[in-house]
Design a protein that fits this description.
The chain is mainly alpha-helical and 86 residues long. The chain has helices at 2-7, 23-30, 36-49, 51-59, 71-81, and strands at 21-22, 68-69. A two-stranded antiparallel ribbon has the order 1-2. The longest helix is centred in the middle third of the chain and has 14 residues, at 36-49.
Length: 86
């Protein structure tokens, strides 16, 4: 029964499922060859420079000081920036 439900999940075939990610974790997924601080700064800059993404993130209450991205924020980041490694 559990397996049947899991097969029906939208993210079942995703390499990076929609879930909570820390900013460090997501930054390193997008920038694996950079050190932690450079990766975070790079990801933050990419997000800030993407006007449509920032507009949608602000509409759902994005807080740049929070240490994690919510699943909804991750959906938007993946929508505008693609999944890491793509």
């Amino acid at each position: 029964m559990k397996d049947e439900k899991k097969k029906n999940c939208e993210w079942d075939d995703r390499e990076y499922p929609i879930r909570v990610y820390t900013k460090v974790e997501l930054a390193l997924l997008y920038n694996p060859s950079q050190n932690m601080m450079v990766a975070i700064n790079t990801l933050s800059r990419w997000i800030r420079m993407n006007g449509p993404l920032m507009k949608e993130l602000e509409a759902i209450g994005y807080n740049k000081f929070r240490h994690c991205f919510t699943p909804r924020e991750i959906e938007l980041i993946f929508k505008y920036m693609g999944e890491p490694g793509m």
